[in-house]
Amino acid sequence: MKLTNNTLLWVATLIILGFIIVASMQHNLINKYKDILNAMDSTVTTEIKYDTLWKDTTVIETKFIPKYIKELKRDTVYTKDGDTLELARESKRFDKTLTIDKDTADLEIYTSGIETSLDSLKMALKTHSDVITNTVTVTKYIEKPKTFWKRFHIQPQVTSGYDIINKQWGVTAGIGVGFDI
After folding, report:
1. CA 128, CA 103: separation in Å to the nearest integer?
2. Rounded to whole angstroms, how far apart are CA atoms 127 and 130?
3. What is the pLDDT of residues 104-139, one digit of tens each?
4. Is 92 left (phi over 0), alpha (psi -120 to 50) or beta?
5. Rounded Cα distance, 125 and 102, in Å
6. What is the dihedral of CA 47, 49, 50, 53, to 10 degrees?
């Protein structure tokens, strides 16, 4: 097979055209990603969710030691056998702090009488609550619209078509102006 100048010219033209097409596509991809990265505007929104946890706990406390004892009056009582008993009517105050996990209760209990009865009960609760948060981060990308003049760009171009002056098909390569729609 004998290669002529015309054949070599066509092979060289096809290689150059292939290189121009690949370079043009690479150039357009790079510009496309640059435009996307420049057009993106990220915003972060945070949503906080609060959960309430309830717990039930029963505490049985039997060791109450009075903090203050005030004797009100002494009564004399006679038994069936003729013995005498002296009973003291007392007023007592009990202070106690109960702790469960991180919650506390301060108790003040007032009792009085011979057969002790409850006069009053004061309770101060101090509860501890942990706030459980659930943070959700959402990133939004907003593409900035291009202005009319930013849509024009210079790029390599390859075209093929029928030449009506020379009456033959032809391929041309060159640099041209493009417009993004």
Report:
1. 5
2. 10
3. 888 888 888 777 778 888 888 887 777 767 777 777
4. beta
5. 11
6. -160
In total, the chain counts a number of residues equal to 181
Tens-digit pLDDT profile for residues 16-56: 888 888 887 777 766 666 666 665 555 556 666 766 666 66
Cα gap 21→157, rounded to integer Å: 8
Q: Where are the domains of the chain?
A: 5-46+135-179, 66-126
Count of CB atoms situated within 10 Å of the CB of 67: 12
Burial annotation 164-175 (CB, 10 A radius, 16+ → b, else e): eeeeeeeeebee
Query: What is the rounded distance in angstroms from the CA atom of residue 91 to the CA atom of residue 73?
Result: 10
Q: Output the DSSP codes for the chain.
A: -PPPHHHHHHHHHHHHHHHHHHHHHHHHHHHHHHHHHHH--EEEEEE---B--------------EEEEEEEEEEEEE-TTS-EEEEEEEEEEEEEEEEETTEEEEEEEEEEETTTEEEEEEEEEE---PPB---EEEEEE-PPPPPTGGGEEEEEEEEEEEETTTTEEEEEEEEEEEE--
